[in-house]
Amino acid sequence: MGLAAIFPHCDFHLLAAMPRKLVTAVMAAAVGLLPIVQAQAQSRSLPIVRDAEIEALVTDYAAPILKVAGLNSRGIRIVLVNNNSFNAFVDGRRIFINTGTLLQAETPNEVIGVIAHESGHLAGAHQQRLREQLRRAQTMAVIGMLLGMGATAAGAASGNSSVAGAGGGIALGGTEMAMRNLLSYQRTEEITADRSAITYLSQTGQSAKGMLSTFSRFANALSLTGTRVDPYRISHPMPRERIANLQTLAHESPYFDKKDPEALQLRHDMMRAKIAAYTAGPGGVARIFRNNQRGLAARYGDAISTFLHGSAKAALPKIDALIKEQPKNPYFQEMRGEILLKANDSAGAAKAFQRAAALDTRKSGLIRMSYGRALMLTGEKSNMSSAIRELKTGVVRDPEFSAGYGYLAQAYGQMGDIGEAELATADMHYYSGNIQEARIFATRAQQKLKRGSPEWVRAQDIINSKKPRS
C-alpha cells in the first residue's frame, strides 16, 4: 500500500515564488490545524496507495456526489495517499484522500462528507481562484517589502535611525497583511465548500451527520493538545465554528438521521481492516475491532495481518474460511492469490487471481496485472503468452500504474523479445517520472523494433516527451 498538503488547495510553484517570510507564515498557519508531514509536501512526493478493493469502494462513495455537483463528466479521479493523518485535498481533476482518513472514519457517511466538501472546492473552481489570490498576496508582500526597503534606505541616508527602523516595520507589515488577507480568503472558501457539501448530501439522500462528527473529532484533538490557535492565522475556520455554521443546515435535512446501509458499512469495515493490517502493525486490527473480534471485517484484517507478519501457511485457512462465507467476493480471491505467491505457489496464485478477475465486475486493471504476474512467475513457457496478454490488458485499463510495465518487461524478457522488454521498461520509467531513464530505454528499444510500427512510434513519443508523467 503505499501528499498530505500543508496548503491543501494551492499551487506549489506559486508558493515557491512567494517571499520566504510569507511562505513560512502561511505554512505555519495551516499546520496549526492539521497534523502534516511537512517534508513530503515540500518535496512534492506522493506516496500513492493502489488497491482494487479500496478504490472501488471510494469510487462508489464519490459517484452520486460528483453527479449532483456537476462533476461526473469531468473525469474526476480519487487518489489514495499513504498518510496516517485525517486529511484530503484537490488538485486539478483529482481528489486526494489520506489512508488515515479512511482508517479513522467509523462510517461511510464520514468519508462521503469529506468527498462532498472537496467536490465543493472543485465545483466552485476554488483552486484556480486560490492561485489568483496567491499571486495577489505575493504582489502585496513584494510592495510592502519594497516600501520598507525604500524607507530603510532613506533613513540610512539621512542618518535617522527611527526612519530606518520604521522601514523594517513596513516590510513586515506588508507581509503580515498579505498573509492575513490570503488566509481570510481561504477560510471563506472552506465555509463555501462546507455549505456545498451539505447541499450535495441532501440532494443524494444522505446525512450530514458524518461531517459534524469529523469536525467534532478535529475540535477534540485540538483541545487535547492544549494549543492556543490564532483564528486569523489559519487557513480553515476553527472546528467549533464550522460545527456552529453547519448544524442548523444539517439538522434541517430530512435525511439527517439516515444510517448507511448495512452492506456498505460492512465494506467500509473491511476497508478499515485492510488499511489497519498494512499500516498499523499486527495489533492495529484488534484495536479497531476490539468490540467485534469475530466479525467478518475483523477476521479479514486478521488474515491479512497473518499474511504480512506471520506465515502464508497460517494465513491460507483464514482466507479460505472467508471465501466460504462470501464465495463471490473477488477481493478475498485476490488476497488468496497474494498469500499463495508468498508461499511460492505461483500456479495456485494464478488460479486465485483468475477467479478474482472473473468475479470482478469493476474490471480492475490491478487484478488483471496480478493474474499476469502470477502466470509469469510460474516460469512455464506455455504460460508466457497468456501472462503478456493479461498484463497488457491490465496496463490498458490502468495505463499509469508503472509497476505493471515492469512485470510486462519481465515477461517479454522471458520470451526473448528484447525490443518489447526495453519498451515496457521505458514505459515503466516514464510513468514513474524518471524521464531520463525512459528515454534511454526507448532509444534502445527502437534499435530492435520495426521502424514505423506502433511500438516504434511509442518509443519515439517517449524520446520526444518534455515532462515526466506520474
UniProtKB/TrEMBL annotation:
GO terms assigned for molecular function: metal ion binding; metalloendopeptidase activity
One example of a Gene Ontology biological process annotation: proteolysis involved in protein catabolic process
PANTHER family: METALLOENDOPEPTIDASE OMA1, METALLOENDOPEPTIDASE OMA1, MITOCHONDRIAL
Required cofactor names: Zn(2+)
GO cellular component: membrane
InterPro entries reported in the protein's UniProt record: Mito/Outer_Membr_Metalloprot (IPR051156), Peptidase_M48 (IPR001915), TPR-like_helical_dom_sf (IPR011990)
Source taxonomy: Bacteria, Pseudomonadati, Pseudomonadota, Alphaproteobacteria, Hyphomicrobiales
Keywords: Hydrolase, Metal-binding, Metalloprotease, Protease, Zinc
Source organism (scientific name): Phyllobacterium salinisoli
Entry's transmembrane regions: none
Protein name: M48 family peptidase
Matching CDD domains: M48C_Oma1-like
The keyword Zinc is annotated on this UniProt entry: yes
Domain Peptidase M48: 51-248
